[in-house]
Amino acid sequence: LPLGARRSVTDFLDNLETPVVLLNDILQFKLNRAGITVSRFAINTTIGFFGFFDPAEELGLARHDEDFAQTLGYWGIPEGPYLMWPLLGPLPPRDAVGFMVDRLTNPVDYALRDELLLDGAIFATDLVDVRHQVIDEIDELERTSVDYYAAVRSLYRQSIRDEIRDGAPDFDQLPDFDFPEDDMPAAEPVSDGAGEQPALQNGEQDHVPAAPTQEGPEMKIPDLPEQGFPLEGMVEMSPTSADLLTQASY
Fold first, then answer.
1. Pairwise CA distance, residues 19 & 38, whole Å
2. Distance, CA of 92 to CA of 165 (rounded, Å)
3. Residue 11 in contact with residue 44, Cβ under 8 Å?
4. Would you list the DSSP string of 65-84?
5. pLDDT at residue number 60
């Protein structure tokens, strides 16, 4: 099928799963996400031609996945051992129980309970659709991984944990870098010995001797005659010039 046709099939199948998503939004008390689910279903079923198109996405109402397995994980139920089922793929016990509950609580399955052929066709189409959405990643993983089974198991568990947390980071999975205080070595002062002063005894004061000074010869200024000093012929200087001359004379 062309890419546009495959996208329409995916949107249609996602729209059929809306009742399951809404129920588990409510069971997890995520009322805001439940409102988004109802709005998406109303818009895509009407404007989107029974869900074959997704105009709600363009209006800012992004799609999200919720199922009963995620609800069990949200309330702390462990997933159990990792199991690989034929056709269904990875499905631990918690997810297997969630899968059966989703089938029993989906109104579409009740509406088609007498149409086994049509119900089986929708279920098979859903499996093929899920497969084609991740086929490129699976092929790349199989080509590059040393242990393909272990790689798929790791990616599956990471994906489930991410869906349960709604994409929020899991800080509990980070390593603990805290060290006990008893194991921390005591910090010792580092000194090169320069500038150390001897310890003072009782009664002594920390006295720093003054720097020695050198006394020059005493300058004597001769007495001027009482009749005054003649000012004729002297150069008049500004205060700044006088200060410079005074400093230069020392």
1. 9
2. 18
3. yes
4. ---HHHHHHHTT----S--E
5. 94
